[in-house]
Amino acid sequence: MSVVEVWWGRVGDARPELAEDLNAVERGRLAAYARDGDKARFLVGCAIVRRVLGVQLLMPPASVRLDRSCPDCGRPHGKVRAPGVELSVSHSGELVGVAFHPGVAVGLDVEVVDPGIDTDALGSVSLADVEVEELGRYDGTGRARAFTTYWARKEAVVKATGDGIRADLRKVVVSPPDQDARLVEWAGYDGTVRLVDLEVGSRHAAALAALTETELTVHSIDAGPLLAH
Ligand SMILES: CC(C)(COP(=O)(O)OP(=O)(O)OC[C@H]1O[C@@H](n2cnc3c(N)ncnc32)[C@H](O)[C@@H]1OP(=O)(O)O)[C@@H](O)C(=O)NCCC(=O)NCCS
Ligand SMILES: [Zn+2]
């Protein structure tokens, strides 16, 4: 059994003091966000990563060394990495989540369920034919939710491998939204993926993937107290 910790913060947890622990690169990224919501989500994500690892490594959050370099261009917008731990950050709407595991690569994705989402347009670039057909069984808000479930499951998988949206999401085929989350097939990928949906309320959908054969247990932890002082 493999235990993944997922720490959840909220946009409302953002406060200026949290930025004191950020390094120069993170401060630059924080300053570059135009919208307050994006700033808050990024800040809370950085703070969860630094504070959780600070406790684990017995060091101040500001001293935790993180590598955010993108394997394609070298700029600091890649999957965040730290020695001795695997992690994955995701933010959307009210929620910011960070998944941690000591040795297995993880991918977390949380998405707001937007009732006005254009599921036809987005589905044409992200869903396999069998998934488009399945989505056709849903209407209205149910369809938005079903699509977002598909999307979060697929993104969790491609975030675990580090491919991100460079991967063709139409080839990352996952189980139907009303069934337990599972990677059905991904042509060209021959590794093992464990996938689970996470319960995050009706306004968001979230999924976690881990590159392991072992069954996953997820501990969801409220990051509020960690961020409050
Ligand atoms: C990663 C990605 C899937 C994020 O999707 P999203 O739903 O918009 O955003 P999320 O909030 O869920 O995830 C953002 C986090 O993903 C992480 N991330 C970035 N690239 C990643 C990758 N290739 N794999 C896994 N995680 C990645 C970062 O830690 C980021 O958190 P940060 O804001 O603290 O930096 C998407 O932005 C992506 O694929 N980006 C890379 C695309 C690419 O290859 N770009 C090349 C640029 S040169
Ligand atoms: Zn890049």
Automatic annotation (TrEMBL):
GO terms for biological process: lysine biosynthetic process via aminoadipic acid. GO terms for molecular function: holo-[acyl-carrier-protein] synthase activity; magnesium ion binding. Keywords: Transferase. InterPro entries: 4-PPantetheinyl_Trfase_dom, 4-PPantetheinyl_Trfase_dom_sf, P-Pant_transferase_sf. It comes from the Bacteria. Signal peptide: none annotated. The keyword Cytoplasm does not apply. Belongs to the P-Pant transferase superfamily. Gsp/Sfp/HetI/AcpT family. This is 4'-phosphopantetheinyl transferase. It comes from Kribbella caucasensis. The lineage of its organism: Bacteria, Bacillati, Actinomycetota, Actinomycetes, Propionibacteriales.
